[in-house]
Design brief:
The chain has about 80 residues and is α/β, with parallel strands linked by helices. It has two domains: about 35 residues, no CATH class; about 40 residues, no CATH class. About 25% of the residues lie in helices and about 35% in strands. The strands form three sheets. A two-stranded antiparallel sheet has the order 1-2. Strand 5, helix 2 and strand 6 form a beta-alpha-beta unit. The model has no long low-confidence stretch (mean pLDDT about 85).
C-alpha cells in the first residue's frame, strides 16, 4: 500500500493470522504489538513514523508519540 508514496507498516497482536491478509493489502512490514509498547518509559526515541492511525491508545499511543517524526501526524480513536 503506497499511500502518498509512503511505506505502510502494520502492527497486530495476531501476527501469524493477520500477516498474509495485511501483505495482500500491500503492507510493507507487519510487526507485533510488543514492538510498539513503551516499556522503557523514554519520553523521546529515534524518529520512525511520519503518520500513524492508532485505534488502540494507551501504551501503544505513548510509544507512537515518542517515536513520531517532527511535523508528523497521529489519528486516534481512543
Amino acid at each position: 500500500m503506497t499511500l502518498f508514496s509512503k511505506q505502510v507498516v502494520a502492527s497486530t497482536g495476531k501476527t501469524n493470522e493477520a500477516a498474509d491478509y495485511l501483505k495482500r493489502l500491500e503492507v510493507k512490514d507487519v510487526i507485533g504489538r510488543e514492538e510498539i509498547v513503551n516499556t522503557e518509559q523514554k519520553p523521546v526515541r529515534r524518529n520512525k513514523w511520519a503518520g500513524v492511525v492508532d485505534p488502540v491508545g494507551g501504551k501503544t499511543l505513548q510509544y507512537i508519540l515518542s517515536t513520531l517524526k517532527y511535523d508528523g501526524s497521529v489519528a486516534t480513536v481512543a
